[in-house]
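Anyone able to model this chain together with cytidine-5'-triphosphate?
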Amino acid sequence: MAYQVIIPAAGQGKRMGAGKNKLLLELNNIPVLIHTLKVFEEDELCEGIILAIHPQDEEEFILLLKKHNVKKVLDLVPGGKERQDSIYNALKTVKTEGIILVHDAARPFIQKDQIHRLLDTAQKTDAAIIGVPAKDTMKTVRDNVVKATVERSSLWVVQTPQAFRFSLLYRAYEQAAKDGFVGTDDSSLVERISHPVTMVEGDYDNLKLTTQEDLFFAQAILQKRQGSF
Ligand code: CTP
Ligand code: MG
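re: yes, here you go
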C-alpha cells in the first residue's frame, strides 16, 4: 500500500509575478513548498519524496528542508524546461514496482484522505487521477465567438495528485519523449498509450496557486481549516 511521490517544484512562478519561485511565498509564515511537503511527510503510507528543483533555488530549498525537518526527500533532481521534463528527470531516478504519485508543489491543500482514496483506486486500476466536476457552464470559443456549449455533466476539472503503476507511467513518458508529445498533465501521457484512467472525486479546496488572487483564496482555506472562518 505504500507509495512514493514525485513533486515538481522547478517552475518559475511567472504568472504569480512575485519575482521569485511562488513556492517560496509564505502562508501563515510557512513557505508553500513546505505546506505541500508536510502533507506527505506526515502520511505514513508515503515512503519517499523525489523533488524536482530549479538550480537557482537549490541552496534555499535545502535550507528550508532542514529548518522544517522534512526527512522523506530521497532525491533532489534538476528540473527541466517544461513541467513534463522535470517529472521525466525525476522518474529516471525512481526505483519501485509499486505506485508512484505526481503532485504539484503548488497545491498545498491536498489532504491525506484524498491521497488514500486515490491510492486505493490506483492499486486496483494502475492509473487514477483526482478532480472535481465542473461548476460553470463551459463553451468552446474561437476568435471571441462561441462555437458550442459543451455538455457539462461529462466535464471534470483535473487536479493532482495523479497516481500510476510506476512501469506504466514510465512507459508513457518514454513514448511521449519519442513522439515529441507535451501534455498538460501526466494522465494525458498515459491516455495516449491507451490505458484507461479512473477519475476519483476530490475537493474544490485543492487549489493550485497560480496568480495573485489565489493567495486570498488560500488564506480563506487556511482560516476555514483553523475553524476561524
Ligand atoms: N514545474 C516544474 N518544472 C517546470 C515547470 C513547472 O517542476 N519546468 C512545477 C511548478 O514548480 C509547479 C508545478 O510544476 O509546482 C505546476 O506548474 P505551474 O503551476 O505552472 O507553476 P510555474 O510553472 O512555476 O508557474 P508559471 O507557469 O506561472 O511560470
Ligand atoms: Mg508553468
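The chain has seven helices and eleven strands.
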